[in-house]
Design brief:
Blueprint (H helix, E strand, L loop, with lengths): L1 H6 L9 H8 L5 H13 L1 H13 L13 H12 L2 H14 L8
Length: 105
């Protein structure tokens, strides 16, 4: 159970969200369509992402990828790898940088 939860994540070999969107609209070359289809058969994470994108994609809006802030990317990587010491140091740094109170929310 734990192994399957750890394996449920985006990997370097996974197609980007933009590629998955293009796959859904059949806006890829035939070879790339086959490669993505094969990947979707094997990767539960990308299958779930594709389903989510398919269910919520709107044709009116153009997809514009945005860069994830480096601190958020670092936190996500630490969470996915279970690097709890790094997560704690990130939380301490954020706390020191922005001391928020309940009235700030």
């Amino acid at each position: 159970m734990i192994l399957s939860a750890i394996a449920f994540c985006k990997r370097v070999t996974c197609p980007s969200s933009e590629i998955l969107l293009s796959y859904g609209t059949r806006d890829l070359m035939a070879e790339q369509m086959l490669r993505v289809a094969s990947h979707l058969d094997e990767c539960d994470f990308c299958g779930a992402e594709f389903q989510l994108l398919s269910d919520h994609a709107t044709l009116e809006e153009a997809y514009v990828p945005v860069e994830i802030p480096s601190s958020l990317r670092c936190l996500a990587q630490s969470l996915l790898t279970g690097d709890w010491l790094h997560i704690e140091s990130l939380a301490e740094a954020a706390y020191e940088k922005e001391r928020l109170t309940l009235t700030d929310a």
